[in-house]
Amino acid sequence: MRPQAMLSAQDITAGYGAAPVISKVSVDAVPGEVTLVIGPNGAGKSTLIKALNGELELMSGSVLLNGEDISRCSEDQRAARGLGYVPQSRDVFGTLTVAENLQMGGYRLPRDLAAERVSEIFDRFPSLARLRKRQAQTLSGGERKLLAIARALVARPIVLMLDEPTANLAPAVAGRVLHEVVVGLAESGAAVLLVEQRIALALDVASRVYVLVDGAPRFGGTDAEFRALPDMGAVFFARGADPTLTSTAAPPRRDG
Hints:
The chain is 34% helix and 25% strand. With 256 residues, the chain is of the alpha/beta class. It has a domain at 1-82 and 198-256: P-loop containing nucleotide triphosphate hydrolases (Rossmann fold, 3-Layer(aba) Sandwich). The strands form two sheets. The chain has a six-stranded mixed β-sheet, sandwiched between helices.
């Protein structure tokens, strides 16, 4: 039995203006696991993240965080309840130092507690401790992404959403970010929701996989079930619903 989902999106429909971009999308993120969301360009992955994060208002459906309905909460309210988010771009303050960026991650906390959390981050990521006085804009791509993730961790989120954390990184660096940092987050007990384009790399760290195509769910199951599909490419590129593409996967669990 899987633990209860810490983040549970139920039948999410969202978009811009009156036009939905995603329809009836359900995703669960469980503590101790990396939940992977993949799909071709334009599938609606970024829209899903914005809907979960509160940047987009839901047209229908609900978002539960640790059993609490946060569907009508603002971005800031969701963050205060434990929903962390690292965007693909604009993920750090370039003119601030590494230490100052981490301090910004604890802006909701009392000063003493924020300082304690930053110290814990430096203990956890010694490479950042060595760079504490460097401006973020001078860091390498991998160092910058590590800083962005570490900054989100200062608030100790119970769910951390990562939007394409390997974008623009060299393959070797991307592998280290996923295998060392993202896996480490899950092993520490966090629920990680990962949106990625580097499917082969991401599958190596994922416990569960969801596929979006044209704004609609096409697959939901374990990583093993996804790998067992006779034709993974058909999930991404075949038009229309095809029940044979999801018959090997159990439907997303509904905890309640």
